[in-house]
Amino acid sequence: MKRFVFTLAVTALFAAAGVNAQVYQWKDENGKTIYSDKPPIGAPGQPQKIHAPSPAASSATQKTLADRDLEFRKRQKESQESAEKAQKEQSASAEKQQYCDNTRRRLQALESGERISMHDDKGERYYMDDAQREKEITKARQDIGSNCR
After folding, report:
1. For 123, which DSSP code?
2. Does the predicted model carry a pTM greater than 0.70?
3. What are the E-state strand segments in the chain?
4. Do the domain assignments include residue 94?
5. Which of 93, 102, 140, 141 could bridge 107 with an S-S bond, Cβ 3.0-4.6 Å?
6. Exposed, middle or buried by CB within 10 Å (0-12, 13-18, 19+), for 140?
7. Are 148 and 140 in contact (CB under 8 A)?
8. Contact 137/110 with Cβ under 8 angstroms?
9. Is residue 6 assigned to a domain?
10. What is the structure's pLDDT at 98?
11. Residue 115 domain-assigned?
């Protein structure tokens, strides 16, 4: 176990030494740009330092996992709320359409001239007279005019 840890430490040491290596850049006789870890033979190259991105810089530009999770949950909640709102609007529209259809059928039955029976407070059946029929027709037309456009 100690040998493994020692070998791992030595390997990490050599790997860290390679991070600070210089890179040379030059153009060959064809005008092609060449990058190498060794300087060109016979001509001075331009040494360049390789900069590894620091963890602080990358975390500043990238959002943390907690921030991304929070944003995801917020978008998910907004999506759910908009779906619920759309469903409520759709059900309200369907109820309104059903109410309008029922009112139109009622108006059609009232205008047809057929005898229409109703029930009084005692539960006994009676037939509408002409005055009640006209009153119900006027009410049905007003309901259709105000709610069913």
Report:
1. S
2. no
3. 22-27, 33-36, 46-49, 117-119, 125-127
4. yes
5. 140
6. buried
7. no
8. yes
9. no
10. 94
11. yes
- The strand pair at 117-119 and 22-27 is best described as unpaired
pLDDT values of the chain reduced to their tens digit, one per residue, 149 residues = 777 767 766 676 666 655 556 777 777 788 888 877 777 777 665 566 555 555 555 555 577 888 999 999 999 999 999 999 999 999 999 999 999 999 999 999 989 888 888 888 999 998 888 898 999 999 999 999 998 87
Residue whose tokens read 């943390």: 64
Total number of domains in the chain: 1
Sheet holding 46-49, edge to edge: 33-36, 22-27, 46-49
C-alpha 66/C-alpha 94 separation (Å) is 42
Domain membership of residue 38 (yes or no) is no
Q: Which domain holds residue 120?
A: 87-149
Structure tokens at 139: 């009410």
